[in-house]
Design goal:
This protein is α+β, with helices and mostly antiparallel strands and 165 residues long. The protein has one domain (8-164): 4-Layer Sandwich (Glutamine Phosphoribosylpyrophosphate, subunit 1, domain 1), CATH 3.60.20. It contains four helices and seven strands, in the order ββααβββααββ. It has helices at 23-44, 50-63, 106-116, 123-140, and strands spanning 8-10, 15-21, 71-79, 82-88, 94-97, 147-154, 157-164. The strands form two sheets. It has a five-stranded antiparallel sheet with strand order 1-2-3-4-5, covered by helices on one side. It has a two-stranded antiparallel ribbon with strand order 6-7. β1 and β2 form a beta hairpin. α1 (23-44) packs across α2 and α3 (106-116) runs antiparallel to α4.
Length: 165
């Protein structure tokens, strides 16, 4: 698989997703969820919550269980001032969390996250911790990529940053 494929996706103005696995499967999943979120917004005149986006993604993954989309996914974003993160597996299991890592380097990255995470971290400190976790995984896992795409979700929206190692 390509190490240069994009693995982060903006799903709504306040919700994004990151994946590990087959990039093509994640692209299919992201397009479907983005379309469903837009239809929800047009119909109800309000944005879909992070939890609702994650639940719709969970339902899509479960419905595809016989011919699964091979992807592990983290869905995150802001509902007002409240950040939320959900982790999904190939079959759509949905787990809320405060931080998460998926993919072949997840064990290394999770160790760094567990050691450095604190509640109410500043955006600057959180970004530095994420970069440290990803760098740790990349150095110790040959299957991990050689760069990082970051989606930063704030109450003002989502923006993306890209860095190469």
């Amino acid at each position: 698989m390509s190490k240069t494929g994009k693995k982060v996706f903006k799903l709504t103005d306040h919700v994004g997703a990151a994946c590990a696995g087959l990039v093509s499967d994640m692209q299919i999943l992201a397009r479907e969820i983005e379309a469903q979120a837009k239809l929800f917004t047009y119909d109800t005149k309000r944005p879909m919550s992070v939890k609702a986006v994650a639940k719709v993604m969970s339902n899509v993954l479960f419905n595809r269980r016989m011919i699964p989309l091979i992807t592990q996914t983290i869905v995150g974003g802001m509902d007002g001032d409240k950040p939320e993160i959900y982790v999904l597996d190939v079959l759509g299991s949905l787990l809320p969390d405060t931080y998460a890592a998926v993919g072949s380097g997840a064990q290394m990255a999770t160790g760094v996250l567990e050691q450095g995470y604190t509640d109410n971290m500043s955006q600057k400190d959180a970004k530095a911790l994420v970069l440290k976790a990803i760098t740790s995984a990349v150095r110790r896992d040959v299957m991990s990529g050689d760069g990082v795409d970051i989606l930063i979700a704030t109450k003002d929206g989502i923006h993306e940053e890209t860095m190469n190692f």
